[in-house]
């Protein structure tokens, strides 16, 4: 055999070995691993592995409306499905992480399932709304909030391009501040959200006293100016963002609402007494407004799923419990098992 022939035979053998090796490797990687094991990247934002693990990627998503990148923690669907669950934070949302993967592990809860989790980071006291002016009184460092635009016009395109999420196959859930926002955004954008879930929300924001409560809470959360949200308390936008007044627009949306009694349970024993007292007061208020919202919804022909535990405070024991309790409904409606 000539030297050239030997080289050709050797090349053929090596090609076969490489092909077989690739077949073995690809065959050993399930489809869900293939969907989750690579970092997304495009011209509008890049991702890195988040320290919370569970295949969560922390992605910088450019927001034209806010003029900056918005971090979003994303867990891809296990088998490449096109459904997504948006998880909104509470009043004291931080710029470090979404609490749904910090205070409870939503990524672990939904790890076995074929749905993408989208968890935006930041937005303290924003109610995930488009504000009319700088969100705080510090005009030298203005805070520009355009969260509704980001969540409904900017983030959906990014999720579609990089994670295969359909723009019309989404669920949205939130706790406390984010709970009312979830219902509001679902009502205003029914073509995007097929389902909305409220965990311990305050769902009647224009009844007497509600604005005073919100004003004090927002000042305490970081000096946020409620007047800048609407322009003024008499602006129609104030009423256009009240979950109670948006009930008719949720007629075709699958709904889940919940609030506990405000009575401490066994799981609340590790909280300090002052935190238990605050959690009790907040949950009592949430329970009252959630029940009022349910009554109004049923009178208008809606049939939400409800959960009113006999014990529970306004804390992550309750929020995490509701996340797990509602999971079956989310997966059934979104066909994401």
Descriptive notes:
There is one protein chain. The chain is built from ten helices and ten strands. The chain has helices spanning 3-28, 31-36, 106-110, 147-163, 177-188, 210-220, 226-230, 236-240, 273-299, 316-334, and strands at 41-42, 45-49, 57-63, 68-75, 84-88, 116-120, 170-175, 193-199, 254-258, 305-307. It has a ten-stranded mixed sheet, with helices on both faces. Strand 3 and strand 4 form a beta hairpin. It is globular, with a radius of gyration of 23 Å.
Write the layout of secondary structure elements.
Elements: H1 3-28, H2 31-36, E1 41-42, E2 45-49, E3 57-63, E4 68-75, E5 84-88, H3 106-110, E6 116-120, H4 147-163, E7 170-175, H5 177-188, E8 193-199, H6 210-220, H7 226-230, H8 236-240, E9 254-258, H9 273-299, E10 305-307, H10 316-334
EC number: 2.3.1.122, 2.3.1.20
Organism: Corynebacterium yonathiae
Signal peptide: 1-33
Q: What is the helix fraction of residues, given as a range?
A: 25-40%
- How many strands? 10
CATH topology: Rossmann fold
* Tally of structural domains: 1
Mean pLDDT: 90
CATH architecture identity: 3-Layer(aba) Sandwich
The string of secondary-structure elements, in order, is HHEEEEEHEHEHEHHHEHEH
Note the beta-strand portion.
15-25%
Strand order of the largest sheet: 1-2-3-4-6-5-7-8-9-10
Low-confidence stretches: 2-32
Please identify which CATH superfamily we are dealing with: Alpha/Beta hydrolase fold, catalytic domain
Return Rg in Å. Answer: 23 Å
The coarse silhouette is globular
Number of helices: 10
User: Which CATH top level class fits?
Assistant: Alpha Beta
> How far is the first residue's CA from the last residue's CA?
59 Å
What class, by secondary structure content?
alpha/beta
- Tell me the major beta sheet: 10 strands, mixed
Organism: Corynebacterium yonathiae
GO molecular function, one term: diacylglycerol O-acyltransferase activity
Family: Belongs to the mycobacterial A85 antigen family.
Signal peptide: 1-33
